[in-house]
Amino acid sequence: MAEQQQFYLLLGNLMNPDNSVRKQAEETYDTIPGATKITFLLQAIRDASAAEEVRQMAAVLLRRLLSSSFEEVYPGLTLDIQTAIKTELLACIQLDGSSSIRKKVCDVAAELARNLLDDNGNNQWPEILKFLFESVNSQNVSCTLPLQVISALLQTMEDQSNPRVQAHAAAALINFTEDCPKALLIPYLDSLVQHLHVIMVAKLQELIQKGTKLVLEQVVTSIASVADTAEEKFVPYYDLFMPSLKHIVENAVQKELRLLRGKTIECISLIGLAVGKEKFMPDASAVMQLLLKTQTDFNDLEDDDPQISYMISAWARMCKILGKEFQQYLPVVMGPLMKTASIKPEVALLDTQDMENMSEDDGWEFVNLGDQQSFGIKTAGLEEKATACQMLVCYAKELKEGFVEYTEQVVKLMVPLLKFYFHDDILYLPWSMPLLLECARVRGPEYLTQMWHFMCDALIKAIGTEPDSDVLSEIMHSFAKCIELMGDGCLNNEHFEELGGILKGKLEEHFKNQELRQAKRQDEDYDEQVEETLQDEDENDVYILTKVSDILHAVFSSHKEKVLPWFEQLLQLIVNLICPHRPWADRQWGLCIFDDVIEHCSPSSFKYAEYFLRPMMQSLCDTSPEVRQAAAYGIGVMAQFGGESYRPFCTEAIPLLIGVIQAADSRAKENVNATENCISAVGKVMRYRPECVIVNEILPHWVSWLPLNEDKEEAVHTFNYLCDLIESNNPVVLGPDNANLPKIFLIIAEGFANESIKGDDDCSKRLANVIRQVQVSGGLWTQCVSALNETHQKAIQDLLNTA
């Protein structure tokens, strides 16, 4: 403590107007070791009881130390001290009550961040970006620290004396803008873009005069990253960059410039995607010709030419920009793309002696199998293969039936990749299957069925064997989407038998894993870290459970009550999910599965009512909003599809549903979806089972709860019922002399403004007709519209224009 007080005195003397006192203080300060200086300076900055000028001086000196002596001081500090410095700086920025201190500390943090770039331009202080982005709503932090980081990086990029440092600063700027939220970047966009343009022009001249390209490569990527984050806000700067970028692609034809050319192609396509078709179209033809010229030379490119991967990605972005107009370019694009996507990795089983003759530098990676044996795979080309496969998926998604000519060869390429374990990104491609089926549909049912048969067995087997839970969930989701698309009859008896066994195994594994986790919580080694791991495992298991639900939903919605005998092998396991003692996620998804049984199997579902009805009723009052939502949806489909047997349960449910809706916190963010499902369920009971309730008593309350803004699907149900009531001139809804119409206009306007209803569906057309009928009665129309604010008036007009 005494040493710290002496240091404060020293800091004060450094600001003394007496030259002799100040000089002596400077000499004393210079004798203090670097690590000790940093410790004392940090303590001074954080000490709120110290004089403000002393704290400011400490911040200035710390910044100066990091600027002038970073390499001599910082690397010699222990890891604990380095971590403490970073933590203390961020804490001070976040918590200090003095804005002037915070600004000074932002300067220190920016200087440290600038120095913590490795030789490849990677940021060694990722916490500062996370902190920065999480602070986007804190003006003191977000408006000061980003400005300091951006300014420091731009200043370093403009340092013409050290090109390698310039390149590192540009790489750091790329890291920053890639993760930077758009809202955080926009205030600094103009200054950032103008600086980048000045640097790009200078470096382009340098390339022409001296042939140096390192910094220009990074600057081009920086521009691309900024455009990608800024999106439509980049439009005003489009003309500033596009001529120079096209010039680079046209003229950077030498072999040593191929990486620059590839990055520039990437930059042009990202800018085009950011600014949109309207702004990009005047240049689209010229850009496409440049890409086509490169594409025609594709066969002359070496396998490791960096332009290949940039070209493949650029074509996909051009497809997103041009939409259906891109189809004309497929004959040129698809050949090289399929060639890259078809790359087969070189693999080998090696003993120790073979291993000595090979190295990872040759592009091989090895996994030790024991017994002096290793499995080796040559990774060259795998990244390009993954990119090419993703681009094929992109074309299928964007072009749909326009891609039909290529669906067969792409399916034959993709299906075997369900067992491709050599690259993570390739394993995540199963979701292409339903997209490819959509493309193939235009050729008729026979062609579509042949394609599905080629996929189906492989997908089911992959669900049964895939060990990675993330990949497994993708495969299960894709399979469910395919079933929905193909419809009734797409699964034969053998498929059902195999699928039933697999799903039963997944559910049994789910319960077993829960038991194992509970056992680990009783273990003597149990602590917070173990609990964190167990919760991660639980989340993975629940996610697989959601995909089991997806598959069952697809099966029930396509095959209806015909699959109930098959479902009975899973019945007891689903019943186990909704037991009161089970975790809320189990109960939620168990109820969702029974919701599907009720909705799609109609009255036939009632034979299983003894298993789910009482838990469903009790779940309407559950503490978990997710469980309440699933239960409320079940009541709605019970009324709509369930038949006579469910009538008393619809009556019983009404007061429970109303209780949820009228709870004080029913519209809180965490509760609103459950509440809206309850409102929809009450509407469905009144609409489809009016004998179960006194409709006229509930109707005024129900209308007052509208519109639904979060659950778009249920919003359509409520609006359709509202149309029924209005079209039948229901006196309760319309009120005496149509007095309730202004309120109804407000409900419709809010629904349309919040996109709860779309302008092109039948529900919107019915609502627009209601409005048009009022429009012809001048006084009533004026009364209804004048009660709306400007936003709602515009919504009404937009609805009339689109529906």
TrEMBL record:
Intracellular or extracellular location(s): Cytoplasm; Nucleus
Write down any Gene Ontology CC term.
cytoplasm
ATP-binding found in the keyword field: no
Q: Does the keyword Transport apply?
A: yes
Q: Which SUPFAM superfamilies match?
A: ARM repeat
Q: Where is the IPO4/5-like TPR repeats domain?
A: 99-142
A Pfam family of the record is Importin_rep_6
Primary location: cytoplasm
- Tell me the InterPro entries matching this sequence: ARM-like, ARM-type_fold, HEAT, IMB1_TNPO1-like_TPR, Importin_beta, Importin_rep_5, Importin_rep_6, TPR_IPO4/5
Which UniProt keywords are given for this protein, alphabetically ordered?
Answer: Acetylation, Cytoplasm, Nucleus, Protein transport, Repeat, Transport
Q: Which GO terms describe its biological process?
A: protein import into nucleus
The residue ranges of the Importin subunit beta-1/Transportin-1-like TPR repeats domain are 199-351
Could you tell me what this protein is called?
Answer: TOG domain-containing protein
